[in-house]
Amino acid sequence: MTDEIIQDKKEETVNLEKDKEASIPIKDKEGKKKDGSFFPIVLVSIASLLIAIGWDKIAVIKDSVHAVLDPSAGWLLNLNVEVGMIIIVAIITLLTTLVQKYTTDQKALRELKEEQKILQAEMKKYENHPEKIAELSKQQFKFIPKTFKLTSRYILFTGIPFILFFRWFNDYFLALEQSLGETVLFFGFFNWFWFYFIATMVFSSILRKVLKVV
């Protein structure tokens, strides 16, 4: 009888261990590489600082960018500044979205998004229980660094071109405003930066849905 009780206890312990193992998510075989890292952010930050410092001091950087963009993006803007800007922003956003889709772990991001939805549903369920809400909120904050790490990889490919494009935009519109003697406003309201920002948000939301990017 004693042996049977001991055996039952052992089985219960084994089952508990199995349940614990099942509750722990299985890591991807690629480990940390699949999770992403903060390295691209650091790299791009250093590159942006160097470009900001050397843009006007190191002629080869500025001249090379102008040699490529003046006859292409500059030509579009010269034809019609508003239509040209829309086309340029659409192309940049499309390329950025494609890079994001194929350089990030979309499967892991979808799973993370689903977990966030479940957590939000739980928070609504326990909205009248402050202690439970506080516990769930802590879990929700844990998603922030995970999501950031998963989405940071594409910045390695887009960060530096993005910075170079912005410096070129600044040069182009500064020269244009000096020649016109007035501030260039898109549709009479926005300077080039705010127009770029708003247009990017619009195109990005459309393209992400069409291309199914998380």
Chain-wise SSE layout:
Elements lengths: L1 H22 L8 H4 L3 H16 L4 H11 L3 H7 L1 H23 L2 H20 L4 H22 L3 H26 L11 H19 L4
Helix pairs in contact: 3-9, 5-6, 6-10, 7-8
Radius of gyration: 26 Å
Count of β-strands: 0
Estimate the mean pLDDT confidence.
80
Give me the strand/helix succession: HHHHHHHHHH
Q: Overview of this structure, please?
A:
The chain is mainly α. The chain has two domains: 59-104 and 159-214, no CATH class; 105-152. Helices cover 79% and strands 0% of the residues. It contains ten helices and no strands. The protein is elongated, with a radius of gyration of 26 Å.
What are the main properties of this structure?
elongated; disordered N terminus; mainly alpha
Compact summary:
The chain is mainly alpha-helical and 214 residues long. The chain has helices at 2-23, 32-35, 39-54, 59-69, 73-79, 81-103, 106-125, 130-151, 155-180, 192-210. Helix 5 (73-79) packs antiparallel against helix 6 and helix 7 runs antiparallel to helix 8.
